[in-house]
Design goal:
The protein is α/β, with parallel strands linked by helices and about 170 residues long. It has one domain: 3-Layer(aba) Sandwich (Rossmann fold), CATH 3.40.50. It is about 60% helix and about 15% strand. Strands 1, 2, 3, 4 and 5 form a 5-stranded parallel beta sheet that branches. The longest helix is centred in the last third of the chain and has 54 residues. It is elongated, with a radius of gyration of 23 Å.
Length: about 170
């Protein structure tokens, strides 16, 4: 039986509240069982509320330490964007794991090593990075819109206040 570790991540508070990390972990545990992997309970690493754009995550750091110690053969991850939202970081982590003799297996990505499968994995990584950029842009746009609305409300209130003062005189 091959030894494996599981890594799951969610970044937003909403995902955290909706327990989507639990669904990732459950799917990975089931996959591990069906594929004959041995996953000790303390080798299930979860990062709740951490951005995939950063490599500084407690669960990921513990996983990387475990890989470096040579204790596991496989890292199971739900999808490439759960490992990282930056394609370069995905490649960096997978190469780091491979140098230690550890295979990275994604539940929602091709499992073989054909050039086409590698290309698809690369596309998934680039799309994850693009999605992150889109989310950030929408968030910035929403914040700017709310700030303008507050400014408009303050300006309206100030105008009304000036009008009331002029009527009192």
């Amino acid at each position: 039986m091959k030894t494996a570790a599981i890594y799951a991540r969610v970044s937003s508070d909403k995902q955290k509240e909706d327990h989507t990390i639990a669904s990732q972990t459950a799917a990975l545990v089931e996959f591990a069982r069906k594929q004959g992997y041995d996953v000790p309970r303390d080798w299930i690493f979860e990062d709740e509320g951490f951005s995939g754009a950063s490599l500084v995550r407690p669960g990921l750091e513990r996983l990387r330490d475990l890989v470096a110690e040579g204790q596991i053969e496989t890292v199971l991850v739900y999808a490439p964007d759960r490992l990282s939202r930056k394609y370069a970081y995905q490649v960096l982590l997978m190469e780091e794991f491979a140098r230690c003799g550890v295979e990275t297996v994604f539940l929602k990505a091709p499992q073989s090593v054909t050039p086409e499968d590698n290309l698809l994995l690369q596309f998934q990584g680039m799309i994850a990075e693009y999605e992150r950029a889109q989310i950030l842009e929408r968030s910035r746009r929403g914040k700017r819109h709310r700030a303008r609305q507050r400014t408009n409300q303050c300006t309206e209130w100030y105008t009304i206040r000036l009008q009331l003062r002029s009527q009192e005189r």
